[in-house]
Design goal:
Blueprint (H helix, E strand, L loop, with lengths): L1 E5 H12 L13 E6 L4 E7 L3 E8 L2 E4 L1 E6 H10 L5 E7 L2 E6 L2 E8 L14 E6 H11 L14 E8 L3 E8 L3 E8 L10 E4 H11 L6 E6 L3 E6 L5 E6 L18 E5 L1 H11 L9 E7 L2 E8 L3 E8 L1 E2 L4 E6 H8 L7 E5 L6 E4 L6 E5 L5
Antiparallel strand pairs: 1-5, 1-7, 2-3, 2-6, 3-4, 4-17, 6-9, 7-8, 8-9, 10-15, 11-12, 11-14, 12-13, 13-26, 15-16, 16-17, 18-22, 18-24, 19-20, 19-23, 20-21, 24-25, 25-26
């Protein structure tokens, strides 16, 4: 194989695929990226960790001899990053080596044969629909912070996607770690009817979100079966991300969304966030709880730490129900408030032990549930 590519093109493409490759691998070829040059000047780049696979096409300046080889992903990325801007990078393979040349720089890297490179077999992907990239990015942003990181509850280690028919057909995304729940609802896209319930793993979500950043103005084609999902960004010759799905059953989260919480608190999410952030300064690992004292048209935030003393702050709020004291994990509360981009946030409360519903307003596509803490 011999091909020449613009450094900027190579770097952009490698930055997309190399983050899929784990730094530590027991199987050497999984540290590599597959480069495939075809006679028509197309260079196909592919990386995988056996659960997740990214394929991207880039236009080469020239392909002198077609061929395919695998080479260390992180090494090639680091080299491309340090090469001079605007340089042409020549990639040539011979005798189990790849020679990388740009200007006066020359590198010789070990390679492994293309035939050993594993490919995820997609099989049939019967469900197919499109979403605007911006919508998909918002869906991820509004839910992924609540994905569980506990490996024992592996079925919570991703975003749950499912369709349902309530007043109208919708597609819902949900994530929970048992302490908080985030749900995002959008009108059901054409073609999504009858799709299986799927759980997209945390790593696939993170990689997809990075890729979306550069393709926000387009659409994303989503194809899925009960075991695999494929996201195609940028149409023909774009980036294709294929992932295995989590093989498990997501709990019936609708049971924890409270419907009868009768105490309504409204306040400005930004000043609320900053207030929680300030009083939580003295909190330690053991005392992450911030206590909220609700009174007529005001909220008093208090944190008490045996090591660092106490902190309190009063905020103006719109509240007309009975006085109430309730505690929340300060970090979880800030995560949710950070998602609300409006001048008011609604908190629907019942009592100090019941889950609280948090949302922008009743028409908001995003909805959050937060479990209280004892304080």
């Amino acid at each position: 194989m011999k091909a020449t590519i613009e450094r900027a093109t190579l770097l952009r493409c490698l930055s997309h695929v190399q983050s899929v490759v784990e730094r530590r691998n027991t199987i050497p070829i999984l540290s590599n990226v597959l480069l495939e040059a075809s006679g028509d000047g197309d260079l196909r780049v592919m990386a995988t960790d056996l659960d997740l696979q990214v394929v991207e096409h880039m236009a080469a300046a020239s392909v002198d001899s077609p061929g395919a080889i695998t080479v260390s992903a992180h090494l090639l990325f680091d080299i491309a990053r340090k090469l001079p801007e605007g340089s042409q990078v020549s990639l040539e393979t011979a005798d189990n080596r790849m020679t990388v040349k740009a200007g006066r720089s020359r590198f010789q890297l070990p390679t492994l044969p293309r035939d050993d490179f594993p490919v995820i077999v997609e099989g049939e992907l019967p469900t197919s629909f499109e979403l605007p990239a911006r919508t998909l990015a918002e869906l991820i942003d509004r839910t992924r912070f609540a994905i569980s990181t506990e490996e024992t509850r592996y079925y919570l280690n991703g975003i749950f996607l499912h369709v349902s028919d309530e007043d109208k057909p919708v597609l819902k995304a949900a994530a929970t770690d048992g302490h908080r729940l985030a749900r995002f609802t959008l009108p059901r896209p054409e073609g999504a009817a009858g799709m299986p319930d799927v759980i997209v793993p945390r790593k696939a979500v993170a990689e997809l979100r990075k890729l979306l950043e550069e393709a926000l103005d387009g659409n994303v084609e989503i194809d899925l079966s009960a075991s695999k999902i494929r996201f195609t960004l940028g149409g023909e010759g774009g980036v294709v991300l294929t992932s295995k799905l989590i093989d498990g059953t997501f709990p019936d989260y609708s049971r924890v969304i409270p419907t009868g919480n009768d105490k309504l608190l409204r306040l400005d999410p930004r000043s609320f966030y900053q207030g929680v952030d300030r009083v939580a300064t003295i909190a330690t690992e053991k005392t992450r709880a911030v206590k909220m004292g609700l009174d007529k048209d005001r909220v008093t935030l208090t944190v008490t730490s045996p090591d660092n003393g106490t902190a309190s702050e009063e905020l103006a709020a719109d509240y007309g129900s009975d006085p109430l004291e309730i505690g929340f994990n300060a970090g979880y509360l800030k995560d949710i408030l950070g998602q609300i981009d409006s001048d008011t946030v609604e908190m629907h409360l019942a009592d100090a032990g019941a889950p609280t519903l948090i949302r922008k307003d009743e028409n908001s596509p995003a909805l959050y549930v937060l479990m209280p803490m004892r304080v």
